[in-house]
DNA sequence: CGGTTTTGACCCGCGC
DNA sequence: GCGCGGGTCAAAACCG
């Protein structure tokens, strides 16, 4: 009897213990959940702070860029004079991005009439092409030099819209822009990006609306025409053409024009490299080809790029399907201290790395870019996972 | 229902 | 001046 009672006592005790254990476990779990919630709140706060900071920074950058563009033409004159004094090899007559000789008499008259207006307006339209790459942890001094070159080049970047722009934009708000472009007789710099990608609609950070498709005579594969739809008046266009019939074949994307609106984070990150390429191309008049080439090597150190002028369109072509390894880098490229992480669905492995440089075409297959974007994305994922 | 894509027609620069 | 061909328009279809 005693044994039975003892056993039943211990069974009851075990039951009580088990229940109390469960309660403790429950409490602990609740506490954990509470902690996670608190952390979640903190992260939310942090995220909103980061976003606020980013937005305010973006505003400041736009402001500063606007001011610098206004001042850059004066600065350019100053630098040109310095160049002359330094006996640099400068070919002033070469003006890539312009085709002044093609201006008709009719257009010349218009230019005379509105040239003063153009000088003022063009200052506001020297924004960078809205695409490019993200480059992290770059040597500050080198970047400063390059950015300086880019700014100077942007001052020269007076592009013209072709007749298609005249047709496409009929509202009066755009008329000034169109007249300006028409009168100067200039053609826009184009940047071609060749990338092997299964999806032709490369997400380069902007929103695009397809407005046409055409099969060219010389190429049986259709070419698609897209217009930037982030702003109703944005003049930026792109053409996408597949380079081969296979599904895996590369796409050639040709960008043309300047965005008239703030770019999203991805796009503004992307803007640096190709914008630099376009700008450097257009600054070919004031810098030697070797220095231009070297500068592009900094922005596109592991891929082929070429410069050409087709149909009076100065064109920078970036071939992301063909890795360009360090033997082709400029001598002073800081390979020893940093490296590059890039994976554009290219079968070739990226060079060995100790620091990260990231080219980030979101939508293309990129490899672990620890950019602000990805950090924010991770935060968002974590937050949504916890809620 | 609003935004996007499709697609035939049209425009116009350019070469001959 | 004419024809070719790249680029754009715009209405209809499609989609979420």
Question: Could you walk me through the main structural features you see in this protein, from its secondary elements to its overall organization?
Answer:
It is a single chain. The chain has 387 residues and is an alpha+beta fold. Among the domains are: 18-51; 188-280 and 294-317, WRKY domain (N-terminal domain of TfIIb). Helices cover 47% and strands 14% of the residues. The chain contains eight helices and seven strands. It has helices at residues 2-85, 105-124, 140-156, 163-168, 175-184, 265-282, 289-299, 372-386, and strands spanning 190-196, 208-215, 222-228, 237-242, 250-256, 303-310, 313-323. A seven-stranded mixed β-sheet has the order 2-3-4-5-1-7-6, with helices on one face. A hairpin with an 8-residue loop joins strand 3 and strand 4 (237-242). It starts with a helix and ends with a helix. 31% of the residues are buried. Residues 1-13, 72-186, 284-289 and 325-387 have low confidence and may be disordered. The structure holds a DNA duplex (16 and 16 nucleotides).
Helix content: 40-55%
Run of helices and strands: HHHHHEEEEEHHEEH
Oligomer: single chain
What is CATH's topology name of the domain at 188-280 and 294-317? N-terminal domain of TfIIb
Summing up helix and strand content along with how strands pair, one would put the structural category as alpha+beta
Mean pLDDT figure: 54
Main location: nucleus
Protein name: Probable WRKY transcription factor 36
Region (Disordered): 322-366
Biased composition (Low complexity): 329-346
